Amino acid sequence: MTDTPTPEADRWGSIPTLGRFAQLDRVRYPHDMRNLSVEQLKTLADELRAETIDTVSTTSGHLGASLGVVELTVALHAVFDTPDDRVIWDVGHQTYPHKILTGRRDRIRTLRQPGGLSGFTRRSESEYDPFGAAHSSTSISAGLGMAVAHHLRAEHDPSYRERNVIAVIGDGSISAGMAYEAMNNASHCGPGAERLIVVLNDNEMSIAPPVGAMSSYLSRLMSSRKFLSLRDLAAKMAKRLPDRLERTAKKADEYARGIITGGTLFEELGFYYVGPVDGHDMTQLVQILRNLRDADDLGPVLLHVITEKGRGYTPAESAGDKYHAVAKFNVVTGEQKKGPAGPPSYTSVFSRELLRQAEADDRIVAITAAMPSGTGLDKFAKAFPERFFDVGIAEQHAVTFAAGLATEGMRPFCAIYSTFLQRAYDQVMHDVVLQNLPVRFAIDRAGLVGADGATHAGAFDLNYLGCLPGITIMAPSDELELLNMTTTAAAFDEGPIALRYPRGGGFGLDLPAAGRVMEIGRGRIVREMTRQSGPERGGIAILSLGPRLAEALKAADMLAAQGLAPTVADARFAKPLDTALIEQLARNHAVLITIEEGAPGGFGAFVMMHLAKTGLLDRVRFRPMALPDRFIDHNTQAAQYHEAGLDAQAIVDTALGALGRSPSQQMA
């Protein structure tokens, strides 16, 4: 009699590549790797790379970064006792190999799919994900906190073993100020920081590229017990010397290694620097990581590894972006399977009009934080390189830099995703809004964003910007409105102004050659299907902010079919409100619904406060529709908005509920 297979076994048996990779098939969790030889680990890495390529070819996602850290991923899990030892991946878009090795291979082809694995690390998904990350530059701070916590626990409980904490951070992520704040603090955190190892994954710009066997030898030597012991001995001897000679000896040691390795900056921050190391040399990686794991009293360590995005997959290696983010693709040819061409994206419409404005006005400058192509500013950079500034992953600096430009008469456009602008909130408030400086905020990816999920959703900008006095906030309902709002922002010098627009394509509208300047704070009636002569005859009014207008019009058609044709209006501005329009709708309708692609407390709250102040809230049945008070998981954008209750049917249900009608009372 055979045992009944468990659901987990059933899932594992359904892996399409099972049987193709002899070494990988033996590894379900990292403990299965601990007794493997270096040669076996090399084979495992080759198979893991092939499995990652096969996976992303069917799911889409971030491929290049994952391929670049395959050897590093294998070495970390083979050397350290994960999950007790903590490995934190900064950003997390390079963790597909990590997920495969940590019990999730049977689900890896659900990556970024509805109900499937997240495209980033996630604490609720696995004990091997000790810290959730999708925004950059957080790993060192989190890792330092974990290391100190382990030390404090060990002091109170002698049986508790202090853990190693490894924070893997990219050369782009380490450009952010937060990373340096964490490193600066690490040197003053006391004994707890001694088990912190920061791995700088350098895949773009090398501080000092490794060259041949000598570099490899120096890296291994500097991390070996023998070298560390000799260095400690030298330090102790130096302390016996007169103060001036001790300082000289210390400087000689520090700068000699700095000349050899380029690590002086990190040493100044209190880190013991090792590297640069070839991040694809398994023999070297394993040996160095073991040495660092077993070393005592080093203090925090920075291991500098050089990797190549897209490593081991020719189409990725030859691509300009190293296949950073890809659609589904053919593994053999690398050809990506793109869907049918649709309308231009909102991002491209913004980009086109900004270019046109910049051609006519040399005061216009563009700023982004490491997202030139994502924000559409790559075209601006090619056309006006002297007026384009990519400041790296440094949103705080980007905003204050824009403020400085504005003080001298320039017209800066600061293009940042909504979810990343959150990181610069103090700068927006203190450096821009408080001083009433005319910085233009182009807020891309506003609203829900699909497969990237809650970490990248632009759900909160209406809330965190709308409470700031004097800022103007626009939200286009379609690409034509965005064209006009970009033109409006370029001409607006009275103070800070923001335009928020969604991910994805518009509606295929014909666009004029140039936009027009809009009247600030003025909305519009889009459809007026009944005479507005009193609340009973007026019926329902729907006031939309942003692209939900299309769903509002669908809902209007559905309500009209039931004899309840509503008025539909486009607010256009969240600040300043079109108070005349709001009052008109409230006075002449029994029900007023607002709808927005943002969290509760945004546009609907602004409208409700105005209605309350004027007494109109007492006479109209007001129903605000916003995102629910929870995070929406990754899915298609349409499915996300359906789940959030912000589609046409939800609008209809809200209207009927306000009128006291149940679904069973709806007319056929």
TrEMBL record:
Protein name: 1-deoxy-D-xylulose-5-phosphate synthase
Residues holding Mg(2+): D171, N203
Catalytic activity reported: D-glyceraldehyde 3-phosphate + pyruvate + H(+) = 1-deoxy-D-xylulose 5-phosphate + CO2
Cofactors, names only: thiamine diphosphate; Mg(2+)
Subunit structure: Homodimer.
Function per UniProt: Catalyzes the acyloin condensation reaction between C atoms 2 and 3 of pyruvate and glyceraldehyde 3-phosphate to yield 1-deoxy-D-xylulose-5-phosphate (DXP).
Alphabetically ordered keywords of this record: Isoprene biosynthesis, Magnesium, Metal-binding, Thiamine biosynthesis, Thiamine pyrophosphate, Transferase
HAMAP family registered for this protein in UniProt: DXP_synth
Annotated EC: 2.2.1.7
UniProt binding sites for thiamine diphosphate: H93, A134, H135, S136, G172, S173, N203, Y313, E395
Residues annotated as domain Transketolase-like pyrimidine-binding: 344-509
Entry's cofactor comment: Binds 1 thiamine pyrophosphate per subunit.
Protein's organism: Gluconacetobacter entanii
Top-rank taxon: Bacteria
Gene coding for it: dxs
GO molecular function, one term: 1-deoxy-D-xylulose-5-phosphate synthase activity
